[in-house]
Specification:
six-stranded parallel sheet, Arc Repressor Mutant, subunit A, 2 domains, 6 strands, alpha/beta, disordered C terminus
Length: about 220
């Protein structure tokens, strides 16, 4: 059975572009489109899609209110936020409203497909910049955090910079160390946490409550 998808955005050209690309995926089916939150809610009731790709900033009922209503009525429907804006308020409110993922419209189409395939399994998804924002805002290095993770202050700082997409060279410059030292520290962090990639580092932080969105 294909994953059924409802597209919600107040720009028709964006909806048409997404439809054209997603319809090429053998495991996905576009079942409807909406240009505002109220229409989206009505169509969710009628069509019962597996996934709603939701614009955040729309006139009338915006994506935040629509997501809250959709996830309250149909908790099995996954909402993927798709926004132009990397703002803590938008990210926080969308996740608090029940969204399962958050992407920026600047992201490549392939990441949209990846996000859909991830959230449909019940997991959360955030693109690199959104994940970095979450880590920046919520990965506080204090005594309790250090005790919980076994990480040093510098190691936690490296996690934050890695999650922001900074290269080993950039981290070396920022921390006044060598690239070799940064790479060794990254390997040590991953051994401590039992992960093998930056994406898994961010997932670990979210799962362990180190980067949860404010409740």
């Amino acid at each position: 059975m294909p994953t059924t998808i409802l597209l919600v955005d107040d720009h028709q050209i964006l909806r048409e572009g997404l439809r054209s690309l997603l319809e090429k995926q053998s495991n996905m089916e576009i079942v409807g489109e909406a240009g505002d939150g109220r229409t989206a809610l009505r169509l969710v009731r009628e069509l019962r899609p597996n996934v709603v790709i939701m614009d955040v900033n729309m006139e009338g009922m915006d994506g935040i209110d629509a997501t809250r209503a959709i996830t309250r009525e149909r908790p099995g429907t996954r909402v993927l936020a798709l926004s132009m804006y990397l703002r803590k308020t938008f990210v926080s409110e969308m996740f608090k409203s029940g969204a399962s993922g958050y992407l920026l419209k600047e992201n490549a189409f392939g990441e949209v497909v990846q996000a859909i395939n991830t959230i449909i399994t019940g997991q959360r998804y955030a693109c690199a910049k959104v994940a970095g924002l979450l880590v920046d805002e919520h990965l506080h290095v204090d005594v309790a955090t250090s005790a919980k993770t076994g990480l040093t202050k510098r190691e936690s700082e490296v996690i934050r910079m890695l999650a922001n997409g900074q290269s080993s060279k950039a981290i070396a410059l920022a921390t006044q160390t060598s690239v070799k030292t940064v790479d060794a520290r990254r390997r040590r962090i991953m051994r401590k946490l039992g992960v093998s990639s930056v994406a898994e580092l961010v997932k670990y932080a979210i799962r362990e409550g180190l980067s949860e969105v404010d409740g």
